[in-house]
Amino acid sequence: MEELLIALQETTLAEALRLGRWAYPIANAGHILGVALLFGAILPLDLRLLGAWCSVPVNLLARVLVPVAGAGLGLALMTGILLFSVDPLHYASLWLFQVKLLLIAAAALNVLLVHQSKAWKEATGDAITSLTRPIPALSLRLAGLVSVALWFFVVLCGRFIAYV
């Protein structure tokens, strides 16, 4: 594993990020934008699953917010790999970084399980069903709560990494 991390650190792209005046700040800004898109879209959707804005159908929110969250996750992952490549041996050894990766994996698994669930399919199936069920099924409410907590701690760990 160490050889792979060293190879990543020695790539031209990692070197450009370390030595270039603007490359790292641009990648960092892209990472922040990705996190903002992800959490900014996930939070209102999860709050809706928890019972907020009951007059707004889940399917209408999901139609807009799920693709935004997906784009944010993609951007955050791509730029996160770039930032990681600057000093992968150091980051890989940080317990906080390892926790962040586990939380991201758990949050992604939560999303996959929710989107495969019958309750999600019913909540996002059509506007009539969504309007007649203002508060989603208990499983979706629980998934929303888990999602908010996981993504919050992902962001928290990411910010704390800069200070350890």
Please give the share of residues in helix: over 70%
Subunit arrangement of the protein: single chain
- What kind of sheet is the major sheet? none
Give the CA-based shape: elongated
Low-confidence stretches: none
The overall pLDDT, averaged over residues, is 90
Q: What is the helix/strand order?
A: HHHHHHHHH
Strand content: under 5%
- Distance, first to last CA: 23 Å
Task: Give the helix/strand class.
Answer: mainly alpha
Cα-atom radius of gyration = 18 Å
How many individual domains?
1
Counting DSSP E segments of at least 2 residues, the number of strands comes to 0
Summed up, the helix count is 9
Walk me through this protein's architecture.
The chain has 164 residues and is mainly α. The protein has one domain (2-161). It is 82% helix and 0% strand. It contains 9 helices and no strands. The chain has helices spanning 2-9, 12-19, 23-49, 58-85, 88-93, 95-116, 118-123, 127-132, 138-161. α3 packs antiparallel against α4, α3 runs antiparallel to α9 (138-161) and α6 packs antiparallel against α9 (138-161). It is elongated and about 55 Å long. The chain starts with a helix and ends with a helix.
